[in-house]
Amino acid sequence: MQDADGGIVLLDWAFAGDGALGEDVGNYVPDSVFDLYVPAARLPELDAAVCGGYLRGLREAGWRGHERLVRLAVCASAVKYDWLVPRMLRHLDRQPVGYGGQATVEAARLFGERGATMMFLAGWADEARRLSDAHG
Would you say which domain of life the source belongs to (predicted)? Predict the structure, then answer.
């Protein structure tokens, strides 16, 4: 993937760990926007790049499963973010802060990016339902 200036973007998988198939991708993609590192408008591009790289890595490591199962796992991870909207609503009276509480963030930007990401995750949930139905 390229950044806004056309430079190469590298992903640091240092905190990737033992988890269910697709779980790291299901965290990485939405959290990149929730933490304001990537604009929500780039979610489809980020999703395609990260999922594609993840699948290539699985194949290179010898995994021979069906890629539809990986996609199902990634998309099904959307359900774990159901806590975020109620939490944001409970804390509307507070000045929002960025990742790690390091600096304040404009509320409209934070909530706008998170709202767009939640809509993207709703699409993932729909895709997971379709993939699950097709898989049986």
Answer: Bacteria
